[in-house]
Structures are given as C-alpha cells and as structure tokens.
Amino acid sequence: MTYTIKRLREEGHFRLRNLDGVESVDVFWAEALKVKRLYIDDTGVYVARAKDQMPEEYVGLKCHRNEDCQTRLAFVGQPDDITSLRSVTFRILCLPETDQPQSMHLAGNSYTPGRPVNERDQLILTPAQLRYVICIYPSRRFEFSYMAFNGDQSVELVSHRKFQIDLFHCQFLDKGREIVKWLENRNTSEVFDFFDFYSCDCIEEILTFLSRSTHPVFKKLYAKERDVPSRISPLVAAANVTALVVNIRFFIYDEQWRAPIVEAIRDGTFRPKSLEIDFRCPLIRVDFDRKECQTIGSFLSNLFEIMSAPQCALKELHLNHFNVYGIMQNFKKDLDYMLENNQSLVALGVYSTARPLKFPQMNFILHAAENHPRLRKICFYPPTDDPPQLAQIDIYQMWLQRNLSRDIQFRDFGYSDLKAHLPAWQMLVFSAFTNYCYYHGFHRIRDERIRSDLLVKALATSRHMPDRIYYLLSKNQDLIAK
Which domain of life does this protein belong to (predicted)? Predict the structure, then answer.
C-alpha cells in the first residue's frame, strides 16, 4: 500500500498516511519540504522546515541531509507523548536509501556550552533503535551535534562504525566512562582509525585512558585548540596513539597551554610516534597576517631546536599545507639545523606549494637529509608542473645513487589539482632510482621494506622485458627467500 497525503483545515498543514509505504528517505524529505507541517498518521507528531515556538510542543531533534542546511527538518511532538515522537523519528530514519550515499546530520536544541543538560538535549532514540539506524545502511554517514547521550547510547555510537561517526559539541552524561570501558576490552586486539570528537565533554576521560593504555588505541588523535584545556595537555603528550594531528593554532593559540607537549618531545616522553601539523587558515581567511606569521616562525624555530635534543624520540614529522610566507629563510635555516642534529626521525613531510619548498627546488632538504642517521622517507606534494625528462634530473639520480635507503614520496591528500600530476612524478623519481639499480642491484638498499616496495614496482614496470625481470629476480634472491 502506497502512502497518501491529505490537506488539513489549517493552511499549509497536511497529513501523511502510511509512513512505512514511502519509497525512500529522498521522497519523504521532498514531500515534507513542500508544506508548512506534515503530520504523520494519527500520532500527533509532525515534521516541519521551520516552526513557531509553542510551549506545549517538544522538538525531539532536527535533521538535515547531505550537508545542505536548507533541508533541515524539525521532528515535533507533545512533551507527554515521547513514545510517539520516538517511534515516528525512528521509522523516518529507517526509510530505504536511494542509490546515492546519504549523510544525516542529527542535532538537538542549541545550548550554551557548560549549562546543565536538560531533557530536551538528550537523544530520544533508545540504544536499540540507535544501533539499528546505524547498522541498517552501512554507507550512510552520520553526524550528531548539540546532543546528550547516556552510557548505553554512547557505546552504540562508537562500537559499530568504530568511531567513524562525527560528533560536534555533544555531551556525555557519564563523561565517556562507558566508551572507555568498551575500549579497554579491545585494547590488546584492535587499533581504531581515528578519534575526533569536536568540543565534546568526553575528551578528558578518553585522554586519561589513552595515557595509561599499554597498547596503541588510535592511528590518529585529532585535537582542536579549544578541545584541550591547559590542565590536560600532559594527557595528549602521553596518549598511546600512532599520530597526533593538530592545526598550527593548537600550538600558537596559547603557547603556555602546550608547553608540556613540547617539553615531552624534547625529553623523549612524547608517546605518539608521529606529529602532523596543518597550516591551513580558517575558511574565512586567505592567509595568516604578519603577526601570526612571526608567531608561527617562532614556534617552529623552538620546535626544531627541541627536536635537536638527544633525548627526542619522535619518528615522523609532517607539515601539511605549509604556505606561511615571510618566514621561509628562517624556516630553511632552522630545518637544516634540526636535520643536522636530530637522531630519531625516520620520515619527514613538507607539503607546500611555496616555490622554495617544492620538489625539485628544495635541494637543501635533500642535502640536509643525506647525513641524517635514520631518515628514510621524505614526502612532498607532487608539483603541478609537468616533470622533466629523466636526463634532465641527473642531480637527483646522483643523489638517489648515494642514498639508496632513502625514499622520496609524493602525496596529493585528495586535492584534484595535485592528484592529476601524482603518477608522473612518482614514476620520474622511481625511474631515476631504478635505472641505476637495474645495473647495480637492489642489495645495497639497507631498509628491506623500501627495497621490497621498489622491487615489486620494478618487476611491474618491466613485465614486458623478460631479460630485465630475470636480472632483478636473480640479483635479489636473498630478499625473495625471506
């Protein structure tokens, strides 16, 4: 039986019969956006694009789809009939998907951070309903904001998508204790991709757990400048995660807040193996102003000096979108000093479109890396220029011959203008490397992971040349035997 929509007496008000007969969530949204109020069956619950505040009505949640705030609908019912509001909300969220991936942003009523949670802030779905909604459509993306969750609901949020749900300004009635309990039961067997709960009040409880964890918990821990007050900066430094990912504002927003993190890098107690710093400005800004550039330059100079300390154990440093003009000369000098004195780095990424730091203009990084005792991987954006012919980069071929255990890599980070140039530059460096290695063997490459990766690539590119394949296989039997 299909659904029907009937006009009611009051202008703009309609009633939908047989909600479960609606073909898809797309169809429901289109019907609801046409009218002022769309009542659902005989439940007394309606959805609306916008509504007048009525004291006897209760907004269960607001929802917009596919990042389009113009599609926001409010789910409204009576305060004394939460059961009907919960049932209708659940049935709508369970409507079939279309072929296109969907995203749902569920929001509660906006509140002032820090005020006590009241009933209207809490998610009206039960834990069982929340689990069903999350699991029924694996490709659907969920975001939650300005909501409060009890312990059972919070576990449902993280357990099925493994933290792949976005949370913004949410409150946890137990401050995240149930999430921690769930994590502890898996701490020896699973490493999750990332933790990024923007401005949620569970962060201190979870950071405390990360600092005492004996096994890595997340591959990446994202920390916003306002998420981490000064008193819990030591917990960030002690977090047992693979990488700490921050924006530069995390450090320069108030440097005193982050002193424990920076000092932990100096004395070797900083537990993340990798530090990734993003230098992008807020969307409303084009570039940092002069004062901010000076502050960033001062911080980087201090960071590089600290990384030159003998106790520093940081393995990877990645500077993403580094286009901070006005500090390039000091940056090059400080980076060169750090590479001369650092003993721990195995990977360095400087991702920039600024000419002095682009490949192949950044000779100073390669020369400084040449004498580093452990540095094995150097990463850049792929240039947006067409690569030169192999014969025109003899300088890099010679450098690669002297540094057979070092790997130059390019990353596009999903930027379309860079992605188009990635394969050509990867092949250029690979060709410069392997042209030498075809005749001298890969056996001089000390790092077996790099050697294995390059050997596989060489075999793939030589698949139509049997003599070269025979040469590569015969000269690398020791690696293949392992």
Answer: Eukaryota
